[in-house]
Amino acid sequence: MRRVEESRLMSPAQGHIVLLAPLTGPVVPLANVPDPVFSGGMFGDGIGIDPLVGKLVAPCDATVTHLARTGHAVTLRTDDGAEILLHIGIDTVELNGKGFAPMIEQGAQVRAGDVLIEFDQDQIACAAPSLVSVVAIANSDAFEVVERAAGGMVVAGETPLLVLRAREGAAADASREASVVVDEARRHVTLAHAGGLHARPAARAREAARGFDARVEVRYDGRKAPVESVVGLLGLGAGEGATIELLGIGRQADAAVEAVARELLREAHGEVEEKPARHSSPAPLVAAASGGAVLAPNTLAGVCAAPGVAVGKLVRWDDADLDPPEQASGTSAAESRLLDKALATVDAELNTTVRDASQRGAVGEAGIFTVHRVLLEDPTLIDAARDLISLSKSAGFAWRSAIRAQIAVLAKLDDALLAERAADLRDIEKRVLRALGYTNSVARTLPDEAVLAAEEFTPSDLSSLDRTRVTAIVMARGGATSHAAIIARQIGIPALVAVGDTLLAIPDGTQVVVDASAGRLEYAPSALDVERARLERTRLADVREANRRVSQQAVTTRDGHAVEIAANIATLDDAKAAVDNGADAVGLLRTELLFIHRQTAPRVDEHRDSYQSIVDALNGRTAIIRTLDVGADKEVDYLTLPPEPNPALGLRGIRLAQVRPDLLDDQLRGLLAVRPIGAVRILLPMVTDAGELIRLRARIDELARESGRTEPIEVGVMIEVPSAALLADQLSQHADFLSIGTNDLTQYTLAMDRCQADLAAQSDGLHPAVLRLVAATVQGAQKHGKWVGVCGALAGDPLAVPLLIGLGITELSVDPVAVPGIKARVRNLDYQLCRQRAQDALALDSAQAVRAVSREVWPLD
Ligand code: PEP
Ligand code: MG
After folding, report:
1. Which CATH number fits domain 4-181: 3.40.109.10, 2.60.40.1180, 3.30.70.790, 2.70.70.10?
2. Whole-prediction pTM value?
3. 3-class SS of residue 637
4. Which of these, 388, 482, 625, 770, could form a disulfide with 398 (CB 3.0-4.6 Å)?
5. With a 6 A CB cut-off, is 547 part of the ligand 1 pocket?
6. 462 CB contacts (<8 Å, ≥6 apart)?
7. Span 684-706, mean pLDDT?
8. Residue limits of the PTS EIIA type-1 domain (predicted)?
9. Is the pLDDT confidence value at 447 over 90?
10. pLDDT: is 500 or 796 the higher one?
11. Atom of ligand 1 nearest to the CA of 486
């Protein structure tokens, strides 16, 4: 190797490497080399020469680490570890060795000026697109070009062409690394399959190229994209019948190109499964009910989350644009981290979706979301977003701009199938923006009688609704006891959940009939169906009105057994609604919902003021106020809990006090300050055993003493974990009352996520196992003379009411609007019959059987 000190034409510093021209001819700047693979730097930095003489010589002392099988290219390695590719002509791999005569063998040691390959210029010039040859630094990450010949003629083995310098910290590594073998492979593939290079074959091609030590680029019609960028591949617009070129570079170029070609040809021959139907295919088909029964045409089945019938126009709620601010509020590094975190969150979500879909055998759905995962890590998108972040744009703005740029590319392609991929990009745009914390809860103008549809509503979506215009809420996913469903019931708007993705394919503005009570949505209904639905709505409204007229009176069963009908509330408005509807008390105030929009945790005085105003609004009725129940499906903006693998089994409910005792203390101080004394009882969520209760009670007593209060405050325990139901007798020794949270008790007893749409129909609190735990709770409480209420959704289920009363429940806490209807139901019951039938129900073998018996004994209106 000729060291820098020996060079007379350039004057490089010590330790630099001089490469002499390996060919004689005029210099061509790399950017002008007529092949985008070289000019784009895919092989590394370097320079071109248009050779006038058919001899390639060594530019320095080196080892021949690779000689192309076809003799058109050679890779050398210097003692310092620089890897130099010498490539004669353009696309000359396709000459298959014709015109090339290698003079050395792989592994040979060569000295500067030694002839490496002789070649027949005329023959090659006739067969290849160009004779321009390239000297490229294959490990440009370790070595940089610090000087290059300015232009003009260079003479092989004499004129210094490039000066290299090891990049800081990279030289030692580079010299230790195994040699970079730069081979290339090219292949043309004609896309015979329908749709051409659309998302799925693109994702498969990407997968096929994985694991090879080679980079593969796909070229079509003057455009190119790395195979790992599905977005880039889609942007090529290579439709059915297009011939694309695959170009591989690297040690395993041949194998990588072959693998990609094989995958694309396999697709063409139909060896892969049928293209999955997109969830947004324009015409939803007849849906099958969850029980397998075929529904009427244009009808989708769902699970009732809030009863009622509605007619209206479908409005896609979660389709509005999210609008992140352009400028970053933090440093570029911080924004970059935010983006990484959001991408990881969405990837985890999609992973779960794919896994769930696969387990259900929903191959199409799994396929769609697998592609979404691939898009999420697409280098084209991520690089573009990072570039914008480095220009001080916010992570959200950068991500949205990167996606929009690709959507614009796809839109230009005039290919319906590829343009449809824009929907996938929009989907991941929104998911990531949501993961970054953006929501579209801003007020939107809704038509009258809007039926809002979304994949899933969050509690905050619903709490900001214009209730005067919304007639029903429908969700593709979700469960009947999710918090969004609870809010829908509180608002008194019919709600249907777990309808499935087909819901999202119904065009905006389509007229629909939602019969939430029957678990059905009919789209584009006939005039007759609309008429029927409106009549039913009127009839139900009349019944409600009749019930309301007597709802202020306390109720007993026909045979005189008293039952308190209380209300579940979350806000001051709900408290007023509870009074209007005749609730005897408040059986559950979900305080986490009271502060859901806050960015900071409420202070003691804020707690006190909120509860005081609610108590004042209740006009002498008592309120059971539950301490913060955050975690799992209940998130509040001011509290970011550390990610948990299993949030429903993690730090939720009262367990939060283990990590944030200050939050509970502040709340308890606020609660203890409410007047008059006796108006408020405390309810502790997610208690597991008596030890926990004893500790919490001691803390409450301590805080009461600190505040100077001498009167005791009643403390109750929610029974929503099976262990609490089983230990009800122990808990009742220390608690003043028990309140069964059937939403969670069902979830934890049946091991069914309360928000899991696929399980929504099975996750039924009338399951005999849940009823047995209710019975056990009552027995345990009765031993110590304590009363038991139910504040889960089951309390408001007309089919459950007689059974719960029969099992010994003396308080039912339901949504305010449901109070008149439940009171009317109780008035018509016979307590002795309820007792008998409830005992029988414990022996039945399914929730459906329990429902069937209840419906038969106590028919619904
Ligand atoms: C329940 O779990 O039944 C309950 C009332 O609490 P939440 O729905 O708020 O979890
Ligand atoms: Mg609960």
Report:
1. 2.70.70.10
2. 0.54
3. coil
4. 388
5. no
6. 473, 484, 487, 488, 491
7. 96
8. 35-139
9. no
10. 796
11. 8
Give the closest residue (by CA) to ligand 1 atom 8. 743
- List the residue whose alpha carbon is closest to atom 4 of ligand 1: 741
Give the residue-averaged pLDDT of 577-600. 87
Strand order of the β-sheet with 303-306 is 299-301, 520-523, 511-515, 309-316, 450-454, 470-475, 495-497, 303-306
Q: Please name the residues in contact with 612: beta carbons below 8 A apart, sequence gap of 6 or more.
A: 673, 674, 675
Q: Is the CB of 696 under 6 A from ligand 1?
A: no
Instruction: Confirm or reject CATH 3.40.50.2300 for domain 184-270, answering yes or no.
Output: no
CATH classification (class only), 287-315+447-545: alpha beta
Please check the confidence at residue 272 and state whether its pLDDT lies above 60.
Answer: no
Q: Is 483 designated active site?
A: yes
* CATH annotation of 553-857: 3.20.20.60
Kindly write down the DSSP assignment for every residue of 277-330, as one continuous string. Answer: PPTT-SS--PPBPTTSPBPPTTEEE-EEEE--EEEEEEEEGGGSPP---SB-SS
Check pLDDT > 50 for residue 4: no
In angstroms, how far is the first alpha carbon of the chain from the final one? 97
Domain 332-435 in CATH 3.90.550.10: no
d(CA 567, CA 788): 15
Q: Can you name the residues that pair with 451 across neighbouring β-strands?
A: 314, 472
Alpha-carbon distances, residue 334 vs 343, 387, 413 (angstroms): 14, 14, 36
Residue nearest (by alpha carbon) to ligand 1 atom 9:
590
Chain centre distance of CA 88: 49
Name residue 613's amino acid. Answer: S
Q: Is the CB of 592 within 6 Å of ligand 1?
A: no
Confidence of residue 276 (pLDDT cuts 50, 70, 90): very low
